[in-house]
Amino acid sequence: MDEEDPFGLNEEIKIVIFKCLDCKGTDEVPEYIIGEFSVDKNNSEEVELHCPHCNGTMIEARKNPK
Ligand SMILES: [Zn+2]
Hints:
By secondary structure, the chain is of the alpha+beta class. The protein has one domain. It is built from one helix and four strands, in the order ββαββ. It has one helix at residues 31-37, and strands at residues 15-20, 26-30, 49-50, 57-60. Strand 3 and strand 4 form a beta hairpin. The structure holds zinc ion (ZN). Zinc ion is lined by residues 20, 22-23, 25, 51, 53-54, 56.
């Protein structure tokens, strides 16, 4: 196991903004969490998260410009 520091003490944690398709709410998600969700997917495939506000579907906001 080449385990990396999970708390990123020596480097900035990259935050990705997710936007809800249903309630349009946003959430800031650390990139390492997204990595866990995308483990079964191809890199080109979107990661979907559950919205903490309405339990809808959230996707990366940057892939959906306003
Ligand atoms: Zn929502």
